[in-house]
Design goal:
CATH superfamily of one domain: P-loop containing nucleotide triphosphate hydrolases
CATH architecture of one domain: 3-Layer(aba) Sandwich
Number of strands: 14
CATH class of one domain: Alpha Beta
Distance between the termini: 80 Å
Low-confidence stretches: 776-784
Mean pLDDT: 85
Structural class: alpha/beta
Largest sheet: 7 strands, mixed
């Protein structure tokens, strides 16, 4: 095929990309709005248009257009392609959902209509535009490999003009330096209002702009969302003005396009009759779910055929044909692929075609509809929410958020996820719950409040490294929390986010350690340096590798700006090799570093140091000029726990110093966080000698954060006479305080029936759970004080062994109980002689424990 023929075919394809299936009214000259050239942000805060950006960058550097889902990346790229084709330029375009990592990129760019050697010659001359749409949709979420293939092409053909698009969140930081990147800006509020005003003025019932909720306005700053809302309004649907989530907008729009498809043509065959009766939505849900399971942006025709073959064999499916002969699989494929929002994609190199949704977010919306249907119609055989939430790829998360956005009872899925987070102590479930709550603005304030309290509790008391993405997400809840929620809890969320989540690192796709070291010098992109450090510390595990990484970071540390330097110190701490100790010790006492860096250093010294470091850390704890005294308090506690067996007498000195610091601590923001951790540390270190003084000082405390930790200390070192003091806090106006008071009463085995009744009547779910049956807090002898994992372990031990001999005991367990044992062993590290072994035979999972360890578990669980 000639280049001119290729241009003609591509131009024809781009002029009919399927938009007319979705937005026929908007494309009608009588109803469409004037279009705005989208603004881009590049080079810091500079706003520009695509044309100006292309001119300013010049032809020698590849360009990457980023943006959120629905921001118009594909539309912008297609407009550019049409513009260049109409100017008689050569353009090759590849939609990366069809990219095959096992075939050369050049072959796929050439496609079915051009020989690769012809394209190679054009690329060598540089007289060609290479456009790659949606690199984030690379098959199997293999985004890193897609970028590597593109960079290889650029190395082979350095003169070619490349323009790509990618969701901003999926753009690898290591690749950023290779591109001139610009991000599509959201529409302005004025543009959104103009569209709403025009669309509502044409409808039978005019709507004042003042009646449109701010959340809907903000949502519709996304062009795709605005287009859907506009189309609904132009069709006369007023319900869109009262939605409470993006999921509800998709739901209304899906019903609209389904109704349009039903009304397009008279029913002439069995397949069309069935699909027009609602079966098409069910099938689209099945297709979307299959794509979600495979983490795919498209699905091959043979996979769709397999799905239909199974569907036709289902006895229930026969009811759809009304007694007529069932259609064939090809008939069904033809009918379903001709209806919006599905589209057929021709294979780039020949072979079977693929099918995709006109926008990837429709896959997520249909997958959510499918999942919600499964849960409501066949709950026994439906996918388990916990397993979907904990899938490491997070492929199901968007579907779950979609369910949360459309369910009849707002906050139901968020609350279920909260319960699951308690049962498993898994922070990623809290992150998903946060996304569900943020994605639906009518989520009950009590649910949002429960979520905020749980995030703080997980940070302080779940005994594992904290998910910094979760802390940042938690901060977004602040504006959604009700007026009755304590202001200090909002302040706590902001404090910990600023302290620990000041940057969000991502793992780089680069595998070679030396290549990652080279990225440490790319100071024009601080995120690239941070991501390289994060990858080095998380991927390379041998002592020799980690020592080498520590030396490379330590060598550059003095030259780095504070943002990179702070993260570098945290990385040295995480590397956990003794070679880091000298530099960490020097940072602790150096005022040349930020307080954040010194706090991270104290944490590292706690993990690696010895008894000689206690004096230095104690001085820093008592230094009122140092902002993060709470971190130093934790470091002292951690170090003391590590060395107490070898230096038992040192604990007396540590406790005395803690009490001295507590008596002298201030009541300002920095002081209250420090006091809270001191109370917590006194409890962990068993400061029973100071119990009465601790109670006396605690009675004078008024700050909720400090009181929470004081009550936690009493739960660990208190006695029977502490119960009345603890009980007095059960009616506090602060839900965080009530939670710790309830837990302390149970831990002290002092809860009375009236205490349980009051706890069960609490407004907050997180507090009520303390007294609910099955949570081990339901009575005073039920292992109170155990973690969520410990309570499940206790339940298994109470159920009894299925087999026992003089060496081991065996128990039948569920998948949830298996994970609870794994968590329990981590929580009680060093207490057991060996790790449990797990054997799965058919549907039965058997856990085998050493007899000695089984006895220790019973002791810990109070059996």
């Amino acid at each position: 095929m000639s280049l001119q023929t290729h241009r003609s075919r591509l131009l024809l394809e781009l002029r009919d990309t399927g938009q007319r299936k979705l937005f026929p009214l908007l494309l009608d000259p009588a109803t469409r709005e004037r279009s705005w050239a989208p603004l881009l942000r590049a080079g810091g805060k500079t706003e520009t248009t695509l044309g100006d950006f292309l001119r300013d960058v010049g032809p020698d550097r590849p360009i990457m257009i980023t943006g959120d889902p629905g921001s118009g990346k594909t539309t912008l790229l297609e407009r550019l392609a049409v513009e260049r084709l109409e100017a008689n330029d050569t353009v090759v375009l590849l939609r990366m959902g069809l990219w095959n990592p096992s075939k050369p990129l050049l072959e796929q760019l050439a496609g079915r209509w051009m020989r690769p050697e012809i394209l190679a010659a054009v690329l060598t001359d540089g007289d060609c535009w290479v456009m790659l749409d949606a690199l984030d949709e690379a098959r199997g979420q293999n985004v890193e490999a897609a970028f590597e293939a593109l960079l290889d092409l650029l190395r082979d053909y350095p003169n070619v003009r490349v323009v790509g698009t990618c969701r901003a969140a999926q753009l690898p930081s290591w690749a950023v330096k290779e591109f001139a990147a610009a991000r599509i800006l959201p529409l302005s509020t004025a543009q959104v209002d103009e569209v709403f005003l025009s669309a509502t003025s044409r409808s039978p019932h005019n709507t004042e702009l003042a009646s449109i909720e701010d959340q809907l306005r903000e949502l519709c700053r996304n062009p795709l969302m605005l287009s859907m809302a506009q189309e609904l309004l132009l069709s006369g649907d007023r319900e869109v003005l009262h939605i409470a989530s993006p999921g509800q907008l998709y739901d209304l729009f899906i019903e609209l396009i389904n109704a349009r498809e039903r009304g397009k043509h008279p029913v002439v065959n069995t397949a069309e009759r069935a699909l027009s009766g609602g079966l098409s939505l069910r099938i689209l849900g099945e297709i979307a779910w299959r794509m979600t399971e495979g983490a795919q942006s498209s699905i091959a025709e043979n996979d769709v055929a397999e799905l239909f073959e199974g569907f036709l064999l289902d006895p229930v499916a026969a009811t759809w044909w009304g007694g007529a002969q069932a259609p064939s699989v090809p008939e069904l494929i033809y009918e379903i692929s001709s209806k919006a929002p599905l589209k057929e994609l021709a294979s780039v190199t020949g072979g079977a075609p693929h099918f995709s949704f006109l926008h990837l977010t429709f896959r997520d919306a249909f997958a959510g509809r499918h999942l919600a249907s499964q849960w409501s119609s066949s709950p026994q055989g439906a996918p388990d929410l916990r397993e979907l939430a904990l899938d490491e790829s997070r492929r199901y998360w968007n579907a779950i958020v979609s369910v949360a956005g459309t369910e009849a009872s707002a906050g139901k899925t968020t609350a279920r996820l909260l319960d699951l987070s308690f049962q498993s102590s898994r922070q990623e479930i809290l992150l998903l719950a946060t996304r569900c709550a943020i994605g639906r603005w009518d989520t009950p304030q009590r649910v949002v409040g429960d979520l905020a309290i749980t995030i703080l509790d997980a940070f302080k008391n779940w005994g594992r490294p904290f998910d910094y993405d979760l802390m940042r997400a938690g901060r977004t809840l602040i504006s959604r929390i009700g007026a009755g929620f304590p202001a200090r809890l909002k302040e706590d969320l902001m404090y910990f986010a600023d302290k620990y989540a000041f940057v969000v690192p991502r793992e780089s796709g680069i595998a070679d350690i030396d290549d990652l070291f080279s990225l440490l010098d790319e100071l024009e992109s601080q995120q690239t340096v941070v991501d390289a450090m994060y990858t080095l510390s998380s991927r390379f595990k041998t002592k020799a590798e980690r020592v080498r990484i520590a030396r490379e970071i330590g060598r550059r540390l003095p030259e780095w700006p504070s943002t990179i330097g702070d993260f570098a110190v945290a990385t040295l701490k995480d590397l956990g090799v003794v070679d880091c100790l000298p530099i960490l010790r020097s940072i602790v006492v150096s005022t040349k570093f930020t307080d954040r860096a010194r706090a991270f250093s104290s944490n590292g010294v706690a993990e690696l140091g010895d008894v000689t470091d206690l004096e230095t850390l104690m001085r820093l704890l008592k230094d009122k000029r140092f902002a993060y005294r709470d971190s130093v308090s934790w470091s002292i506690q951690k170090l003391a726990v590590r060395i107490k067996d070898t230096s038992p007498k040192i604990i007396d000195s540590v406790l005395a110093n803690y009490m001295e610091a507590l008596r002298a601590e201030t009541n300002d923001a920095q002081g209250r966080y420090a006091k809270g951790n001191i109370y917590y540390s006194l409890g962990v270190l068993g400061a029973r000698t100071y119990l009465r003084e601790i109670e006396r000082i605690l009675r004078a405390e008024t700050d909720g954060y400090v009181v929470e930790d004081g009550l936690l200390a009493l739960s660990l070192i208190g006695d029977g006479s502490s119960a009345e003091m603890v009980r007095s806090y059960c009616t506090s106006g602060d839900p965080g305080v009530r939670l710790k008071a309830a837990e302390a009463l149970v831990q002290l085995r002092a809860a009375k029936p009236e205490d349980f009744a009051r706890i069960l009547a609490d407004d907050f779910r997180i507090v009520r759970r303390v007294a609910e049956p099955g949570n081990s807090q339901s009575n005073a002898t039920d292992g109170g004080g155990l973690s969520a994992a410990g309570r499940l372990v206790r339940h298994v031990m109470e159920r009894g062994a299925v087999q026992a001999d003089e060496f081991r005991e065996s128990f039948h367990i569920s998948s949830e109980e298996r994970e609870a044992f794994e968590t329990f062993f981590r929580e009680n590290q060093g207490s057991f002689s060996s790790l449990p072994s797990v054997v799965t035979q058919g549907f039965v999972t058997e856990l085998r424990l050493a007899r000695e360890d089984a006895g220790k578990i019973r002791l810990i669980c109070g059996l």
